């Protein structure tokens, strides 16, 4: 019973709880963690209770006589978890609903062009950080990696819009990102930094951004993300160095390589290859099943969540209770095993982390199931990946843990807390791999730890469908370069198998959330359509010099973000497309009131009357609204020369262009508007975003 | 004097010389290598000469008395090198001139859309493989990595066009690649496989293809290249396992990680960081200087090379003599040092590879300069990267080696042999880094071997300007994950510094070769132009149903690859663009003679009369020529319905579109043709390729 309250933890109260929070362990030490974060008398009292249990647990008394104390411990455990869960849920439900979930699908959608307001707002950032800390600390089967990607993107967005005016945090020199393209690049860099920090995998971060997050890539972005993650790596490295003495809690654990398995043997034969192939195939099936079930559960939850914030919190409470019961109850099924001799590490461990947990066992024994359940996620993974420990876990233990984590992972994603998918998938995959490795032990030379790594790879490939980035992240996590060919093989096999069933989990979530994500490849049905077929509604266009009333009417009546400007006689010989003017620019123009009484071309001079940043892209949801513009009656009949404010080089397609090819154009160039021009004169506009 | 002829090498004559050839060492063992490859009585004789020298070298006789024998050894050394050099040069000059040089710029240009005939022809493949073997064996300061990328691309091209009809090697099932896009993808995979095999870096190969080689990338390509390199890794791994017993010469050396430095210490402090920054800055300067000088030398050489094949061979002979003199002569400047005690490896080494070479020294001593010069490239790099050997090399040694390799590398690239740039750059960079490390020894804790690695990174960043791929390749070469932050930093610094001087070496070569490479970003001057400004010459267009004589005339008169098809009354109300028809398709059409007497629309039915592969893209230079088409007099007045053969959805831009934006469209979508349409009806075509 080393669960809680070993006194020396109280020393770490002093500071640095944010860093602590980033690597909060899942189970065993919420109480001491909680001390660091929430200082309430109520919780202080409870420490006495728990340390009492700890004292009893250290006694060599028969288990039966401790029933009362174990019940008390259970109540304390469940209570702490519940408190943290409710805190996370309240933040998510009442402050920033957009912070729930992984965040990767949202960032992906944003970079695809979905400019939803709340996705990257400062409030989302705040809730994401603290919600994630509470959620991970609250014992849920969730990761911190997805939320960290979202956090990185939020910070990048905040920097990109020059700080937050609402919270009085603005920097002048950050205004260089006041255009859509550079801001998107910055957010891509932010997402890469998130992965780099979460997995301590700088190159993996770059590749993750490239393979999974970004919809639109240019060569300059490669070294920009690379620069970002290099800075992350250097800073991480410095902090780990600084924290070497243990003053930052669990932060420095594992160093720059979180799960070092490089010492393991790495020769393998043909039967091993076959075993790995089978592992990959089954992993792919389980991965796609995971996606399928997550999708079903999400759909169910969204019905509950729609009923209101209270229901969201209620759902979180139920899942929290269930998780607590599982992780406290299931270890009782584990057998007590005597500690193996000749160990370098302490056994059983009394502390926050370690390979062998005592739980209810006698001294000198450990409970293998407790070593997985009542441990931090990182340590559980480390235990599963550990090599040369064939006999540490029973097959039944691995099976129970796998089943529990697989199911809990599925039902946890979708509740109103920030929840990453990586850790559940890696945990389930590693236990699955170790299970297979233990079964195949007699016929293969590969270490069970390596099987666990390959199992994790197969699950990651099966759910997330990434290849290169997953491979590099796993490499950087485990420092096991010699296993690279096998990891590559497993990832490819499981991805291929899973791809034949359904889509990647992030794509599924994007689709389920109803975000209008645009795929990289054209859908088959598009081949039978032409661009003309999808042009929506009646065309609203302006002439080169337009009446104020018409512009105002068009802005009111439609929600288009771009309008074609068509020059008509007397400004041109025949009606011809001059370009596309943006809604946001029109609003600035109306607000600026540069009107003229006559219908005449004024020219570029009018641009001088605006400041350099007037037309800059504002932060999400911060732009001018139509209500901000007040036009007086007499101004309604005046004219605006739109020519200087119009993009005279819009991309265009002919109306008979195949829709598939138009879609490719749209996506590959990262467009927001596309003009569809007819074969015979006259103009109509298609605005897909 | 362990240079040549230790008897046991003769045993390896029996077989496997191709595998041997792939990792041919640069200097010390050409004679025994040569035995394996060319069995001529002449060479047999010479072995006796050299083994005589070897015997004398093993004697403990004073150096002065051996002058005559050393001269004989020099002649044998130079002679062998010269023979191999001439063989490589003759292959390059007379059989396939396109095989000279690195090959990476050519592959890059091909993937950018430059479909030059010889770049990927079977003869180029043949010369590239054997020329590279001869060149590397002939003691030149050249690498095998670039040629291997080119080899990979050539093999991919051969597969992509369904084999070679000329050499009667064709496979039916390979015809699925009979279109431009899939073939480009396959060649990208081939290039990735080349890097993966050369550096044993599967992930590095994927990234190299992405960052340096490919102009056009799609998400599916990521896992395809990944799959390719995974197969490469598994096969490599299998072969290394098979060759473990040493039966494949030097192939298995280094295992899957060629230069394992993972054992080195990896803590570093702020002064170390500063030292690394300075290293990166100077490395960047040297790198850009390298590019500048290579460019100058290439321009000089191209004047010589243009004079004829004999001049090419002559140039190779001169450089070969110079290189041989340097690598045989300079080690005499090295001092003899007693072998350090407590070594695991033998010292001095008698054999093809090793850390300590005896050369002219007494037994128990080694010559440090000879250990670099008279060694394989791989071993020289391994020596420089080796850690814990601070005193192995004198500062003067490193300086001499650096200067020699830097200069030889510059004057060697551009002669008529297949020559990679990686190895010279890594060698020069590593000796530079080790030199700096030795100087900074007193003030830094970093190992000199790590400095050598960082120096190599700085030179690679300074010349090739790759970031992520270089970083991963270095990681996979050295297995030194903990140094990743420093390597990233150095790469970024040196790239940034070098970018302010000139372009990357491959870009320079592409430009110097006059290949019409299209940059990813638009040139500044393009912003002031519109698409209309660059439309070349008078427009040649066809009507929907065109007279055979007109088509034939247009094909004869112009070299355009695409022609707009404009429907005119009576087939449409007003003249309008129907689409673009390709030159190659027109040729097939004329050859097929599906003509009609009347000017009528025949429709899709005509397509049925052609086979599935008639319109498939033929191999480079294998397509129908205009001369192949014979049209009789009466057929000239007949008509062809072009509609079924026309691409009815060409990408178009309006003539007033900014040229910069048109260029972006062209490049990002990987286009070959772009229609420029006027604002007022009528059509004109721009064909940039």
TrEMBL record, chains A, B:
Location, primary (coarse class): membrane
A Pfam family hit: Voltage_CLC
Membrane topology: Multi-pass membrane protein
Molecular functions per Gene Ontology: voltage-gated chloride channel activity
Keywords from the named record: CBS domain, Chloride, Chloride channel, Ion channel, Ion transport, Membrane, Repeat, Transmembrane, Transmembrane helix, Transport, Voltage-gated channel
Example of a GO cellular component annotation carried by this entry: chloride channel complex
Keyword flag Cell membrane: no
Transmembrane segments: 74-99, 119-142, 186-210, 216-236, 248-268, 274-293, 313-333, 393-414, 481-498
InterPro entries registered for this protein in UniProt: CBS_dom_sf, Cl-channel/antiporter, Cl-channel_core, Cl_channel_pln, ClC
Coiled-coil residue spans: none
Subcellular location, record wording: Membrane
Family, as annotated: Belongs to the chloride channel (TC 2.A.49) family.
Name of the protein: Chloride channel protein
């Amino acid at each position: 019973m080393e669960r809680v309250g070993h006194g020396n933890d109280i020393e770490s109260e002093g500071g640095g709880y944010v860093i602590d929070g980033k690597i909060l362990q899942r189970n065993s030490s919420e109480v001491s963690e909680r001390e660091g974060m929430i200082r309430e008398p109520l919780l202080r009292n409870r420490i006495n209770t728990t340390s009492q249990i700890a004292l009893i647990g250290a006694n060599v008394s028969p288990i039966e006589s401790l029933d009362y104390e174990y019940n008390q411990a259970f109540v304390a455990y469940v209570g702490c978890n519940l408190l943290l869960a409710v805190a996370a849920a309240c933040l998510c439900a009442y402050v920033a609903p957009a912070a729930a979930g992984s965040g990767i699908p949202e960032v992906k959608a944003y970079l695809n062009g979905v400019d939803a307001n709340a996705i990257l707002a400062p409030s989302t950032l705040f809730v994401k950080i603290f919600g994630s800390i509470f959620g991970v600390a609250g014992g849920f089967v969730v990761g911190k990696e997805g939320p960290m990607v979202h956090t990185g993107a939020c910070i990048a967005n905040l920097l990109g819009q020059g700080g937050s005016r609402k919270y009085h945090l603005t920097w002048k020199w950050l205004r260089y990102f006041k255009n859509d393209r550079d801001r998107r690049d910055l957010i891509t860099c932010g997402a890469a930094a998130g992965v780099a920090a979460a997995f301590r995998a700088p190159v993996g971060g770059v590749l993750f951004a490239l393979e999974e997050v970004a919809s639109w890539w240019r060569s300059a972005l490669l070294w920009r993300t690379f620069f970002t993650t290099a800075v992350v790596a250097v800073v991480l490295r410095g902090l780990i160095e600084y924290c070497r003495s243990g003053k930052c809690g669990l932060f420095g654990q594992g160093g720059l390589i979180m799960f070092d398995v490089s010492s393991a043997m790495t020769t393998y034969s043909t039967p091993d290859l076959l075993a790995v192939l089978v592992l990959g195939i089954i992993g792919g099936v389980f991965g796609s099943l995971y996606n399928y079930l997550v999708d079903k559960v999400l759909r169910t939850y969204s019905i509950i969540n729609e009923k209101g914030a209270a229901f969201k919190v209620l759902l979180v409470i139920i899942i929290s209770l269930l998780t607590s019961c599982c992780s406290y109850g299931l270890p009782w099924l584990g057998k007590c095993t005597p500690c193996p001799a000749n160990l370098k590490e302490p056994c059983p461990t009394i502390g926050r982390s370690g390979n062998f947990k005592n739980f209810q066992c006698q001294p000198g024994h450990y409970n293998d199931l407790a070593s997985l359940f009542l441990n931090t996620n990182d340590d559980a993974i480390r235990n599963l990946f550990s090599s040369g420990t064939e006999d540490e876990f029973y097959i039944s233990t691995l099976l129970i843990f796998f089943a529990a984590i697989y199911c809990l992972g599925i039902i946890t994603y979708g509740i109103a807390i920030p929840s990453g998918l990586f850790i559940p998938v890696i945990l389930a995959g590693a236990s699955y791999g170790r299970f297979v490795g233990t079964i195949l032990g007699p016929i293969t030379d590969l270490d069970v730890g390596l099987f666990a790594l390959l199992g994790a790879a197969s699950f990651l490939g099966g759910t997330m469908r990434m290849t290169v980035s997953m491979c590099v992240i796993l490499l950087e996590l485990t420092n096991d370069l010699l296993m690279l060919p096998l990891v590559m093989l497993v990832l490819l096999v499981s991805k291929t198998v899973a791809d034949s069933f359904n889509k990647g989990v992030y794509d599924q979530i994007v689709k389920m959330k109803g975000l209008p994500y645009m795929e990289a490849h054209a859908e088959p049905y598009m081949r039978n359509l032409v661009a003309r077929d999808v042009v929506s509604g009646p065309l609203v266009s302006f002439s080169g010099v337009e009446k104020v009333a018409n512009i105002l009417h068009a802005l009111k009546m439609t929600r288009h973000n771009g309008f074609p400007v068509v020059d008509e006689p007397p400004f041109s010989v025949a009606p011809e497309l001059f370009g596309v003017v943006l809604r946001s620019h029109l609003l600035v123009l109306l607000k600026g009131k540069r009107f003229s009484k006559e219908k005449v071309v004024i020219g570029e001079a009018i641009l001088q009357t605006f400041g350099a940043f007037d037309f800059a892209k504002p932060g999400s949801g911060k732009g001018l609204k139509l209500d901000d513009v007040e036009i007086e009656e007499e101004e309604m009949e005046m004219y605006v020369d739109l020519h200087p404010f119009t993009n005279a080089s819009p991309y265009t397609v002919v109306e008979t262009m195949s829709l598939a090819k138009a879609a490719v154009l749209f996506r590959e160039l990262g467009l927001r508007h596309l003009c569809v021009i007819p074969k015979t004169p006259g103009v109509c506009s298609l605005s897909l975003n």
